[in-house]
């Protein structure tokens, strides 16, 4: 079984551009977080979304090529095949639409918490299964 790849598209806006004329580093992380949240909400049940919350414990990002104003961006995200207790690694590739190679690659560790108590919670097998393809 493989992890499902979830895709979102974003236009590069003028507010995303830094003093060097390309997308600011923090915007890549915003896109990665927006894609992760959208993926979670698309695959989890309403009960899961109400009962559980994710927090990031680590981000690693490799910038490969600059994105500029007017570019359309495709963000692809997927999770590792199996969580490690409460931790689950998520991968994000950010591409200029039509580009063969990613402009940025992000690897993040997310930790599952109980939404009410904010205590760490092991990722249930039935939840993990929702992010896999057969």
Structure, explained:
The chain has helices spanning 25-43, 46-51, 125-129; strands spanning 2-3, 6-11, 52-63, 72-79, 87-96, 104-114, 132-133. By secondary structure, it is an alpha+beta fold. The chain has a single domain (2-129), classed as Hotdog Thioesterase (Thiol Ester Dehydrase, Chain A, Roll), CATH 3.10.129. The strands form two sheets. Strands 2-4-5-6-3 form a five-stranded antiparallel β-sheet. The longest helix has 19 residues, at 25-43. The model has no long low-confidence stretch (mean pLDDT 96).
Total DSSP helices:
3
Q: Classify the helix fraction into a percent range.
A: 10-25%
* Structural class category: alpha+beta
Counted up, domains total 1
- Biggest β-sheet, characterized? 5 strands, antiparallel
Number of strands: 7
The global form is elongated
Q: So, the CATH homologous superfamily?
A: Hotdog Thioesterase
Mean pLDDT: 96
Q: What is the H-and-E element order?
A: EEHHEEEEHE
Unreliably modeled segments: none
Alpha carbon gyration radius: 16 Å
Key attributes of the depicted protein:
alpha+beta; Thiol Ester Dehydrase, Chain A
Q: What's a quick, concise take on this entry?
A:
Helix content is 22%, strand content 38%. The protein has 134 residues and is of the alpha+beta class.
